[in-house]
């Protein structure tokens, strides 16, 4: 039985190292967007390379995150977590030293592999190590500190880009890893999921990541008119079909098809795809819009985005003594009384309204009157929908599959974001050099905001039509504080004391 107490020195070190490790990946998901204009200028590259700078990381992270959790259960959670931290740091070093866009993109893909190992591993270590009486509080602290890391990411990225340079956005991970690894090896107990059963679905993970990569390539390269676009798209669809076939035939699939027999689970993942596609596209483009068109410095652009994540942190951490099922928040109390359909409908509509206000952010935009109001509305919308979405995902499956359901939902959100980053510039009519021409980028940004708003409205319609009230004895979220705007909180499987 796990016996580490939170108040003990070992418990504090364990929490410190897991927070530090997961914060590396959490920071990376928000900090890089602010650096994109400087990366493009210094490496003299077009918009497609900036899209790949974001998406190369997401392709491997989304494709391998489910496999990463399974590796920890089989070979030791501390071992795989430490491997992920070291891998992530070495890939970050390569990013920081990259002499060309191609090297940077390849290093970002390697970063995603490290993220897929350490992100689920950090939560698994907490759940496997802490005494049952302290586990819930430890997970809450882990998610809270991780949310703070996500919130300060854009600000930190802006400060680094404006000061020592964009390369330090990546190089910062090296000293963090140098601190994290020795503490983990000394103070974190090893654990595993018991005797090995079945085989790893390496083929499924490879096919999933390859399908995402090929389809992303086709979408990003389409504006260039490359003759490889159509073959890449066809190959991506074929690999996606092969992925589905393999998952249906394998005895131990990474993505069990039967989990989608739950209509509620399928419905809430469709809502997830819509809302996180919109969020992924928005946060990719708004960092460029603020700098390229509005003339903000990297530091000002990063600071400008703080209100959205600050609202998520503040209102997702307020306790509610009568409700655990939706995260212990005021919005969770509303979801408990009305069911999740109302907040999952209202939340995306609020976010859509916020994005319809974003075309006001143009040349010479005033922060107080043009930028801040839509970001506050967006934050309110995200606060409204994120906790009920996570609770509904967990409530739609058996307790034993709660961790798997959360992992699938998290991977779906990241996959939706990477597809949006690839497709949105194409659909909005952004040319390869659009981010170098403020007027052209501004016009395309306005079109993109209307498209993202429409995607959010679609998510609201799906929620209103398909989502139903869960059973009262459903699994409860343990991550009660969340500040990551690119993916919902990752929940682990429940372990008996």
From TrEMBL:
Domain Major facilitator superfamily (MFS) profile: 14-471
Intracellular or extracellular location(s): Cell membrane
UniProt topology in membrane: Multi-pass membrane protein
UniProt KW Ribonucleoprotein keyword: no
NCBIfam families named among the record's database cross-references: efflux_EmrB (TIGR00711)
Region (Disordered): 475-497
UniProt keywords, alphabetically: Antibiotic resistance, Cell membrane, Membrane, Transmembrane, Transmembrane helix, Transport
Pfam families, per the entry: MFS_1 (PF07690)
Name of this chain's protein: MFS transporter
Membrane-crossing residue ranges in chain numbering: 12-36, 48-68, 80-99, 105-126, 138-162, 168-188, 200-220, 226-246, 267-290, 296-315, 342-359, 371-395, 407-428, 448-467
